[in-house]
Amino acid sequence: MESLNSQGMEKEFTDSVFNIGKQDFSRFAIDLFNFQYQHNHVYKLYVDSLNIDPGKIKEISHIPFLPIGSFKTHRVQTTSFAPEIIFESSGTTQSVPSKHYVKKLSFYRRNFLNGFEKFYGQPSDWCIIGLLPSYLEREHSSLVLMVDELIKKTNHPKSGFYLYEHEQLFDVLASLEKQKKKTLLIGVTFALLDFAEKFPMQLNHTIVMETGGMKGRRKEMTRIELHDVLKKNLGLKQVHSEFGMTELLSQAYSRGEGIFEPVPWMKILLRDDDDPFQVHESGEGIINIIDLGNIYSCAFIATDDLGRISSNGLFEVLGRTDNSDMRGCSLLFM
Question: pTM of this prediction?
Fold first, then answer.
């Protein structure tokens, strides 16, 4: 059983994380780092293997970032609890999925609803359509759960999921366009491309949001190439994007050109390729993420994605690193 002090810290984190301001982010992050060092066995082993004194961490750039592959090989969990749900990443039958142990599903709901409302307002203002065939065909997808909850909150009769019923989807979108109904079509990349190429149309009242997902389905395309096809075939000025991962509870959104803005309780940093402990807040490098919503897993994650951050904190994802291991840094778990 966790101590009263631990329970008090948990309550403080969960009560205040979604109201965090820029001036409070660093203090909150360092407090959460110390909490997770004490109550996350895997993270503590990792920090100790680096011979880092937690008491000397005074800046967020000095916080150790756990390699994202740890979610495949270890149970990354802060405090002791039985998870209400376990999210799993997609992958082939030969690959090991990442697993995210979620203590409270209600907290995940609060997280993505707060994020969505910040960027797009109340779900009830929208008709939301999900085109997520590869995700609907497997269990334990955090994205499907998020979109399903948003669909339910619209209370719109046309809101819902589609697998491969492209002709029916075309008819629904055409009807919504005639009604001038504000609509969000959120879809996995290959499915949006398939639909746009088979059923080109003019969308004036619909936002199209891609969530990524091309590997093994179609020829790889750059985000610019992808968005150009969608804009041309669907009559769009911009294509929106969602940035999320199984290992995260929070999202970032792009309103166009692949320029993402994270929610206020999430921050993107960059590390050098040849020195993973050199961390900076702008320029190009490999993406590190602070997700303060990851109270019960690990809030400090070193990804395998290349990125660019501008001076205003907005970021782009440029691709993947050649290898998934952090050079100069190893996991010393037993």
Answer: 0.91
